[in-house]
Design brief:
Blueprint (H helix, E strand, L loop, with lengths): L5 E5 L8 H4 L6 H5 L6 H5 L6 E4 L41 H22 L7 E8 L17 E4 L20 H13 L4 E3 L7 H12 L4 E7 L13 H21 L1
Parallel strand pairs: 1-2, 1-3, 3-6, 4-5
Antiparallel strand pairs: 4-6
Length: 258
């Protein structure tokens, strides 16, 4: 099978929590697993790209898709999750020094590996892979709204062009984003651009320098309703495998046009 000319990052694929962090968590086992991007590994992990980089640890330990210097409540070590639940026990919230240690131990090694992968010959783009709920949860930008099958984010506005309200630079040119979107539509998916998520740290950080090399970075969110039950408690592996095949076909079609 032909290797796709993309690097795939999957920063929220793990529920693993090391013992030294587990003792501080207020969430139970279900709450921890609920913070995994359900289906992201099953859909994207088997794609034959230049590299596939899943997270080794839960985003509750450190969020690989956040700026390492951001120590705020929704920063690299968050205080609450997207359902508004407190992550840490009272009095056990990590201080700045603890956050810095976690960044050095868990965040930087993964990003060094990603940076090396992005030097691969023949690279056309970085695809940062996620999944999202069918309906926006309370702390999302679109609470209560029904979402598309596939959301593509390039740090821009609804049409993929620069959004002055966001600042910064695009991670992918609008014409290339449209090529990707059209390929997914031809594969039978509904597609949205930059809503609810225009892309996090990974595409914002790596996208602009990749564009200078003629490549790009795009965040992709697959709707969990395509692969899981209504409560996202049970993954349908056959459906996930079929969605993965359809996504591969879409990416093959897009790669030939990029």
């Amino acid at each position: 099978m032909t290797t796709l000319p993309f690097v795939f990052s999957i920063p929220h694929a793990s529920h693993r929590v090391p013992p030294e962090v587990m003792t501080d968590l207020a969430l139970d086992d279900w709450g921890i697993r609920d913070n995994v991007d359900a289906g992201a590994w099953e859909v994207f992990g088997g794609l034959e790209g230049l590299a596939v980089l899943p997270a080794a640890y839960s985003r509750l330990v450190v969020d690989l898709n956040r700026n390492p210097e951001n120590h705020a409540a929704k920063g690299v070590v968050a205080a609450s999750d997207y359902n508004g639940r407190r992550i840490f026990l009272p009095g056990r919230e990590p201080d700045d020094e603890t956050v810095r240690r976690r960044v050095e131990r868990y965040w930087r090694p993964w990003h060094r590996e990603l940076a090396r992968a992005l030097e691969s010959p023949g690279l056309k783009g970085l695809i940062d892979c996620h999944s999202l709920d069918k309906t926006g949860p309370p702390e999302a930008p679109d609470p209560g709204e029904t979402r598309a099958d596939i959301t593509l984010g390039n740090n821009g506005g609804p049409g993929g062009r620069r959004d002055p309200d966001r600042g910064g630079r695009l991670a992918c040119p609008p014409d290339k984003l449209e090529i990707l979107g059209n390929a997914f539509r031809q594969a039978g998916f509904s597609v949205a651009y930059n809503r609810p998520y225009p892309g996090g740290y990974i595409v914002q950080h790596y996208g602009p320098p990749l564009m200078e090399r003629g490549a790009f970075a795009v965040q992709i969110e697959v709707n969990k309703a395509l692969v899981a039950d209504a409560a996202y408690e049970k993954l349908d592996r056959e459906r996930a495998a079929e969605v993965s095949r359809r996504i591969r076909r879409a990416l093959e079609r897009a790669a030939s046009a990029l």
